[in-house]
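W.,

You were right to be curious about this one. When I first looked at the sequence I had no strong expectations either way, so I just let the prediction run and decided to look at it fresh. Below is the sequence, 294 residues in total, followed by the output.
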Amino acid sequence: MSTIAFIGLGIMGSPMAVNLARAGHQVIGFNPSPHRTSALVEAGGAAVTSIAAAVKAADVVAVMVPDSPDVQAVLADADGVFDSAPHNSLIIDFSSIRPDVTTELAHEAKRRGFRIIDAPVSGGEVGAITAALSIMVGAEASDFHAAKPILDVVGKTVVHVGLNGAGQTVKAANQLIVGGNIQLLAEAILFLEAYKVDMDAAIKVLGGGLAGSAVLNQKARMMLDRDFEPGFRIDLHHKDCGIVAAAAREAGVVTPLGAVVAQLMASARENGDGGLDHSALLRGLERLSGRSLA
């Protein structure tokens, strides 16, 4: 069992930290909003009031924060991980950030005597709660093997995809696919509703054919019920669309459908839906179709 500092106890980070505590690890959590630490404490973990206090005796430092600047601040700011954690600690960055930022931070981490992996996840809040996340890992092989017992506690599909930065590149591709699937599912649902078909029957038969997907399984009911309680917020998917666009431009790759989805995410955000689940792209379609929002 390891002593794990877990930085960032939001929608995803909190259940992941809880699962690690329930598996027997000593988990010390920090979150800028202290009320987010309660689930971890109830599961047997501990809560502290600073990053420095969380990491000072940690074997492993797990980070799950929203964006590239947040990870940079957690790791590299004064009294952050680089200043406060024991040398040779293993840093696992579960956040979804820019691949180039990940690579730069990995160089700095290694220069300062740390091991580091990028391990962004897919599966949303449900996957975090049920420990069924898909985790795409960029790391040196030895660091991946050192981290794998931790990763296996929170994930179901754990794959080493290359060196530092590769995990974030694969996660960007994941978000490209997921965003497109959500948008097309929303279009299909609005189309079917317009023809007043039996929606439950339609979703059942679509799920049994080539149109079936994890997105359909997890998001169709939310769309039908207009229940957009966030499992993964539009704000975060909007950020991920920007990561895809920047990385694709750097590689000289064209992503035309991805660009359309990025614009629809941006529109949803500007219309006040940024805090909703990304299945709320359906609301943007209702606006474009001149329908009143449910």
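Here's what jumped out at me. The chain has a mean pLDDT of 97. And, maybe more interesting for your project: The chain is about 55% helix and 15% strand.

Coffee later to discuss?

I.
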